[in-house]
Amino acid sequence: xxxxSRIKVQIKNGEILHQVLQELGYSxxxxxxxxxxxxxxxxxxxxxRRSNGYDLGFRCSHSDGNDGDDHYELVADFWGAxxxxxxxxxxxxxxYAHKTLMANVQAQGFDxxxxxxxxxxxxxxxxxxxx
Length: 131
Description:
Layout: E1 5-8, H1 14-23, E2 28-35, E3 41-48, E4 56-61, E5 71-76, H2 78-81, H3 85-107, E6 111-117, E7 123-128
Helix pairs in contact: 1-3
């Protein structure tokens, strides 16, 4: 019986996810097996190896419909991984959102005019474009 659980996350771009994981200091294996309870394994696009043998993986989950809503999910044996899922995901999601925003801003011809981190950790970005 598999002990792997999946959590859908608001991540669609695997390249940006990979960059974020590396920038946060994780050593990432690409297209590898996630290890879990009693040698159970499951495939994932990005795998963070852990010394306790309970890895954390991000796997692309293809939508069931024709809406093209592919997304990534975090897959792990959370009992064995012994992590707080929110504490693990929050910095990843925040950095992913920032990188995605910056890529979209540049692609649409905007310039970043100001950027600041507020006391609550919220990142405030002001963009503009001359027309």
